[in-house]
Design brief:
Strand content: 35-45%
Order of helices and strands: EEEEHEEEEEHH
Distance between the termini: 27 Å
Shape: globular
Number of helices: 3
Strand order of the largest sheet: 3-4-9-8-6-5
Largest sheet: 6 strands, antiparallel
Number of domains: 1
Radius of gyration: 15 Å
């Protein structure tokens, strides 16, 4: 069962994520931004990054595709109220396919405690090899 994590940008809730994907050895989790208010789109992310001097990794206006560097004002909060901290966090995606939030460099043992399902899935892949 996946937990729903709240996503806040500058203290305002912009959606949630289930962190359905991961790279446990790198301390990375990422997942689709579920945005019931349809706030998160190319224009919203680009404007926020311009105003707050957030560097972009990719920016293709024609395709409405964008990918950011770390956004300090972005917080991901567990259902228990813990802010999930790592070395960095980003948002990427495009209007036609949706957007994802990623946190990288989450330290152990916290990663293993917070995301045991991802660690277990990763370990299962190498059991019989």
């Amino acid at each position: 069962m996946n937990k729903a994590y709240m996503i806040k940008l500058r203290g305002e809730i912009i959606g949630k994520t289930n962190f359905e994907k991961a790279d446990p050895p790198m301390g990375v989790v990422f997942g689709e931004i579920i945005d019931s208010d349809k706030v998160v789109n190319y224009e919203f992310i680009k404007a926020f990054c311009q105003v707050n001097n957030i560097e972009l990794v990719e920016d293709y206006p024609r395709d409405e595709l964008i990918s950011t560097r770390t956004i300090e004002q972005l917080e991901i909060i567990s259902p228990e109220g813990l802010i999930i901290k790592g070395l960095g966090n980003q948002i990427s995606g495009m209007n036609s396919e949706g957007f994802e939030v990623m946190i990288e460099g989450i330290s152990y043992p916290f990663y293993e405690e917070e995301f045991p399902n991802h660690v277990k899935e990763y370990e299962e892949r190498f059991k019989d090899k």
